[in-house]
Amino acid sequence: MKFKLPFKKKQKPIVNTSHNNKEILSPSKIDFIRSIKDATHSPADLMVKSMLPNLTLIYINNLVNDKNLNDHIITNLQNATMETPATIKQIIAIAEVNISSQLEEAITAIINGNVLIHMEGYSQVVLANVSTRESRSLTTPENESQVIGAQVGFNESLSTNISLVRRYIMSPDLCNEEIKVGTRTKTSLNILYMNGIASDQMVNTLRQRINDLDVDALLDSAVLVEMIDDNTLSPFPQMLLTERPDRFCDGLLNGKLGVIVDGSSMAIVCPQSFIEFFESREDQNLRWQVATFVRLLRFSAIFLSVFLTPIYVGALTFHYEVIPQAFLVPLSESRALVPFPPVFEALLLEFIIELLREAGARLPTKIGQTIGIVGGIVIGTAAVQAGITSNILLIIVALSALASFTTPSYIMGNVIRLIRFPIIILAGFWGFYGIMLAFCFILVHLLRQSSLGAPYMAPFYPPRFQDMRDSLIRLPLPYTAKRPSSVRATDQEKYNPEVEHPKKS
Amino acid sequence: MKNSIQLSPKDMINAYLLFFVIHGAQVGVGIHGFQRVIYQDAKHDAWISVLLAGLATHIIAFCMIKTLEIYGSNDLYGIHQDVYGKRIGNFFNIVYILYCFVAFFSVLRNYIEVIQTWIFPDLATWFLSATLILITIYAFTGGLRVIVGVSFFSIVLALWILPLLFVPLKFSSIDSLFPILETNVGSILKGAQSMTFTIIGFEILQIIYPFVKDKENVRKHVHLGLLFTTFVYLFIMFVSLTYYSEGKLTKTIWATLSLFSFISFPFMERFEFVAVCFWMLIILPNLCLYLWAACRGAKRVVKISGKKFVWIFSLLIFIGTLFVQSRTQINTINTQFGHIAFYIIFVYPIFLLFVTMLKKKYTSQKEQK
């Protein structure tokens, strides 16, 4: 029983578009201009420029690069004489020039930033690509910052992102397939993988899933992930969204597949196992002892974040016996004034913390920080003084909130924070039994998931001891020379681990 | 041989996972208080009974694997149908399904009782049984891979409990074990028989066998799993015998949980509260595997979809837990189930091995003619 909603299985009736498709452009200048204007609904930025003796240039002003247009097209056209569209093609000093006589093709080209050059008496037009796309400059990755390592993140331009990837992997084996998704937006996305490493079967699966999509718009890669992952109903993400080119390339070199969507600064990496969401790219840049320590710290933080508040609630509501006597005194003192049951108290505080987080995320950066600090301190202190919550719970809730932010993947961090709430409620009603119920449920749930067909709990289940060397802990590089087997890589070995040890000097 | 099971490699598991399946299926609710039952028979030589029972599991597992190897890739249900013919074979299969049902029920009911006695006296039986059954169904519907995964994690995540038993070892005296072999052999053997309820579970091997990818390694990992179980039981029995004073064990129903009760950490006391709840993870593979085994059998006997069977099965179990309420009733079920299980698990496989071997000889002779 797989809980998978079919993402719009219904086949759309094929619309008869042959009437539009085959329409040939008119040789007459006036008819040509009218047909273009009709097809694009004569936007305000559609420029029609007539040139002597018999040329017409049509383009959308905001899509073309003015400098290229002036220097390489208009100047050249003015200085030369030409008889046919074919000669125009030769004169223009632009790399991408095509000739077409079909309306549909011309419209697509003009939308993509081409200039149409029409010659009176010919139905063919010259399509010269002088497009320009507005995009912001490269900045440091905001959501996945790290101390040691590259400080560049993806931006919203597809070509910039791919060039970033190509800068890391200079190999002809880096395959790049383009697919257009969205009947209205026609968003282009690229599937990237390493030929000879990535499993062909997985590439086919991913390609199939993307091709099967029947949506009208695709604005972000996060939406795409939700459409193509294995179990849409699970709160746990099954594909990694990253804005770090180095992490993306690390995935590709490990035999994973990457997808970059135009207009989105987050790239998709899949298949991804549960444990890999808690690994940071920085772990590879640190010495292995430090990396192991940081990873263990992070995992205990996740565990604390999920279970600390529920355990507090469960222990205080049902299992007083579990609390050591020495601790019972300060605990009861701090709770003496609180009029609510622990579960309500905990839910209230968690709610406040989530409010602060959400407010901090929505507000401009500078105000957001102030709100976070002032709100945290003011509300926290006031709540304790007013006797709504106890000091100790405040510490516990703050601790678990802090711990949840150690997750390197923000999306996984969100899930960690979300699943805390049902567990707190269960703990409030049924104590440790409720917590254990939630624990077993989550365990079974995680075991049932898969990521692009690969087991989600790898390398722990199915147990692969070789892969565990780079999971909870990270062993020195020679011990991690194999690629994770869950990605079913064609080439298992990254390198030959039996290198000669450098001589001691 | 006919009606053997053909599976795609995708549905199969590696042989080394059998270690976890066998151990996970054996350890369950029996471990909470098996000491008392055996102590009643074998007194302070109870550890010898445990050892003997462990030895018996090895012998039986050997017979089971032998029987299964004759058929190559078939489970107990298929073997029954082949050996006794369709009708009588199906009768045996139904008996076995009933056995799984009772085993599931007994595990569930015992665990519910432990929870109600130790932590939540007021928590309703129907609620506990409904939640546990729902989680079991959720794991079951994920397929065999998920069930085996649950067994794996239940063992790996529960391993930390075992070293905690060194804490009571501090207060124990080795003298309680001496003199060795004071009890007569008959009583020790009787004690070993009383281990049945605690040590069964490895019969799941007869059902899971066709699902194993590399069958040549089955033997090794099954015996390793059994060895580990025997070791765990022996260790717990040893700690209990040396820790409790003479005669105290006969009055302690859940001796293992009582052992936990004074383990304390700087941040936590009364460890048994955690242990009892944590035991849910340990009984989960028990429940899943018995449900799965019953479902496999039901599919063989009658044409029924897994989903339908699970709901019928769970409903019956749920109603059953509501009717069995008192401690005496549960105790009677445990004892009776232990007796029946002894014949089904420890006697019948030897008989089955003889029958299959005879049949094999008979058919091969026939073919030669």
From TrEMBL, chain A:
Q: Which Pfam families match?
A: GerA (PF03323)
Task: Determine the domain of life of the protein's source.
Answer: Bacteria
Task: Reply yes or no: does the keyword Magnesium apply.
Answer: no
Where does this chain mainly localize?
A: membrane
How this chain sits in the membrane, per its record, is: Multi-pass membrane protein
Question: What is one GO biological process annotated to this record?
Answer: spore germination
Spans annotated as Disordered: 483-505
Q: Where is the composition biased (Basic and acidic residues)?
A: 490-505
Q: Where in the cell is it found?
A: Cell membrane; Membrane
- Annotated InterPro entries: Spore_Ger, UPF0353/GerABKA_families
- Cellular-component GO terms for this entry: plasma membrane
> What does the sequence similarity comment in the record state about its family?
Belongs to the GerABKA family.
State the UniProt keywords alphabetically: Membrane, Transmembrane, Transmembrane helix
Q: What is this protein called?
A: Spore germination protein
Q: Which residues cross the membrane?
A: 296-316, 367-386, 392-411, 423-447
Q: Does the entry feature the keyword Transmembrane helix, yes or no?
A: yes
TrEMBL record, chain B:
Instruction: Write out the entry's keywords from A to Z.
Output: Germination, Membrane, Transmembrane, Transmembrane helix, Transport
Organism of provenance:
Psychrobacillus soli
GO CC, alphabetical: membrane
Compartment(s) of residence: Membrane
Its chief place of residence is: membrane
Q: What is this protein called?
A: Spore gernimation protein
- Its transmembrane ranges are 12-34, 46-68, 88-108, 120-140, 146-167, 188-212, 224-244, 273-293, 309-328, 340-358
Per the UniProt entry, what are the Gene Ontology biological process annotations, in alphabetical order? spore germination
Q: Which InterPro entries match?
A: Spore_GerAB (IPR004761)
NCBIfam families, alphabetically? 2A0309 (TIGR00912)
User: How is this protein positioned relative to the membrane?
Assistant: Multi-pass membrane protein
The similarity annotation says:
Belongs to the amino acid-polyamine-organocation (APC) superfamily. Spore germination protein (SGP) (TC 2.A.3.9) family.
